[in-house]
């Protein structure tokens, strides 16, 4: 198990806050640019600020809910399976997608669960691939063999 992280209740709150912050910053940039582009020439700055104030908090909340739910399901899956591997994130993504779409009916929940599970599988697979690719750079290397010029003063056998 990964003992470098806090216990699960604190991880959930931390992940919720981190996801909310990413959504707030990303939403401010996204909606600021969008508001700037969609405003008339003389009111672009005001249009950008108005769009940020109206939509960035909504995006931040959506990111926060997704992050908090994912972290909650991740902790629950770790507790049930009693092991820590990439499958936990994939299963938690599956549950998160389904839970967020459950208001749309069972078909929407199923489709969203499958989509989120596949998305998390791709993310986990990419992470594993990058780790393996970067691990080759840190392999221990054998010391160089002595050359014949360094054995000049040695006694012949």
Descriptive overview:
This protein has four helices and no strands. By secondary structure, it is an all-alpha fold.
Helix count, per DSSP?
4
Oligomer: single chain
Distance between the termini: 56 Å
Count of DSSP strands? 0
The sequence of SSEs as H and E is HHHH
Question: Quick check: average pLDDT?
Answer: 90
Helix and strand content put the structural class at mainly alpha
The low-confidence runs, each spanning 5 or more residues with pLDDT under 50, are none
Largest sheet, described in full?
none
| Residues in helix, % | over 70%
Gyration radius (Cα, Å) is: 25 Å
Describe the structure concisely:
This protein is an all-alpha fold.
Provide key terms for this protein:
mainly alpha, 157 residues, 72% helix, extended
SSE layout and pairings?
Elements: H1 8-37, H2 44-81, H3 86-100, H4 106-135
